[in-house]
Design a protein that fits this description.
By secondary structure, the chain is α/β, with parallel strands linked by helices. The strands form 4 sheets. Strands 15-14-16-17-18-20-19 form a 7-stranded parallel beta sheet, with helices on both faces. Strands 4-3-8-7-6-5 form a 6-stranded antiparallel beta sheet, covered by helices on one side. The radius of gyration is 33 Å and the shape is elongated. One of its GO terms (cellular component) is cytoplasm.
Amino acid sequence: SGASLRYSTGTGGEGSEGEGAGLASSESGGSGFSLAAAALPERRRPGGGRPRYEVVRELGAEEVRWFYREDRKTWKPFIGYDSLRIELAYRALGAGGSGEPREGEAAAVEPVCVRSGLYEVDVASAESYPVYWNQTEKIPVMRGQWFIDGTWQPLEEEESNLIEQEHLNRFKGQQLQESFDMEVSKPVDGKEAIHSLKLSRNHVDWHSVDEVYLYSDATTSKIARTVTQKLGFSKASSSGTRLHRGYVEEATLEDKPPQTSHIVFVVHGIGQKMDQGRIIKNTAMMRDTARKIEEKYFSNLATHVEFLPVEWRSKLTLDGDTVDSITPDKVRGLRDMLNSSAMDIMYYTSPLYRDELVKGLQQELNRLYTLFCSRNPEFEEKGGKVSIVSHSLGCVITYDIMTGWNPVRLYEQLLQKEEEELEDRWMSYEEQRLLEELYITKQRLREIEERLHGLKASTISKPPVLKFKVENFFCMGSPLAVFLALRGIRPGNSGSQDHILPRTICNRLLNIFHPTDPVAYRLEPLILKHYSNISPVQIHWYNTANPLPYEHMKPSFLNPTKEPTSVTESESVSTVPSPTTSPVMVRRHYGESITNIGKASILGAASIGKGLGGMLFSRFGRSSATTPQTLEAGKDGAEGDDKKASTVGTPPLSHSSSGFLEPTVELEHRIDFELREGLVESRYWSAVTSHTAYWSSLDIALFLLTFMYKHDQEDTDKSNLDAI
């Protein structure tokens, strides 16, 4: 990450380097600076605020806070670790506290790596930009010294510099108020300003050393001020804004992001020509959602999963603008949309452009991995893992890169098949002689080709297609199964993922889809045919209390009506699961109406005797509030889970009374995972929106992290047990 900082254990006296934070060159490389700030007395505000010194002096590096602003929203503070290192680089530029850096020194400071290494800050231009992807808009950064009370938003830098300069000129070396308990803003009624500073549109009044107010000099405010003064309100509290010098929290080096132990490449599908920045926005949504889930469920782990967007489409030229030139002008807008989205599928099935698409994605994946490892040398040393999340057509291209599949191989297989068929039929002596000659010639040709390849290989060693092994391959809204079926893959009789994706290439394949996504298809029935009648695994809602681990969830039939049920009606209704407790929610088949669910709930409520309200709440509610059912589930423990796993007329595989699944093989690992449908959304509307609904889903974020943190979680649990 660049600059390292170190604190010296000085005494923090008046003349020590505490005020300006002395700079010392560090041997650790990176930005080449270290902060030797004198150890300061830990005096904090009652509210856990920043420490205060007895005497007014220049702000220490830990009191200044740097901010960034994205999408013209409010300023967001950098974490302490980032802010200190930016401030350090800023001071190295020769800025001190005097405003702009000195000329000619801009080249001396390297950019500072921030926000878990995803961005860099150029202090000289006060801008931030992403490291791994291109972004047209630069992100402005700002140095905060004076802050608005309550929101702790920074004052604009120019005003802030003027106020700071004035404050130091007037009060440097003066004693601050001793009483820290009186920090709750005392009314400053009738207290006249001891010092004032006029700014362009505002003015600042000092009522004491640490009671500073900003007043707007706009006309409306003047009227408001005279009115409030006549009514007897104090001048300061009525229209002024209280200002604080130095940030509410002291920046420390301990406030740093955890180490990245797992990177996830997020690969887009079709249509990125239309909106090049979309995959960057989608990945940002997925990253933010995953951060929330990490904080809630995985905060005990000292590692971290990073998401990187793989934008492979915009660099490709393909046919130039030939397709555009042959597009009729009528309904141009719709045509353009189809050209820039659905057209990718046509390009992919074209032998001319397919290789360009594959190469585009492959090079981008390798570029990102190499760049990440060069910036994080410990990642490979510590056995960092790589997963890929692909969407839509991106799944097919990623699969083909991993397996090395190409249409030429398919063509060769077809030719071989034709030759075998030729051998079987009767033919004349002349035909046979010519065929033998053809075989011998082909054999000779192959040998010459192999020798030639051998010579080439000795000079140019072919690099592996991908520079990393893929741990998990998550497909979202994926048409991969259709592509595989059209390539001639048929179900086998072993329950192994190797049938479609060998474990040596990728440890785990997981296929996620929304039930109404029109582009998504199931993969399991391509491995074992009878899985077409077994429902996909339901993905847990993110706020489910104590969800059953996915590997313990028993398969259940897709169409319970076809199978004899061993449960009576009243019993089956009474086991209607609540979203907050159930390991498997029976998959509603699409003919089912909302009234049926309502009827089942009412019957269930009557038979359990818990009252309608509780039943409906637990049936439809998504909250993790503890209902009576949750408590009961807790008492039942594992036994209750087993009961619930075989809900409403869905016998588990082993106990199948029909004999349909008795002799068959089961999958080693489940592959198809389905998002739970919302109870209120319209099926037609969700068919339109579901294909892009994956990015911001908390359920999916939890699902991805559950599989990526699996080993870390197991190791932590094991070490905790060992300790006990």
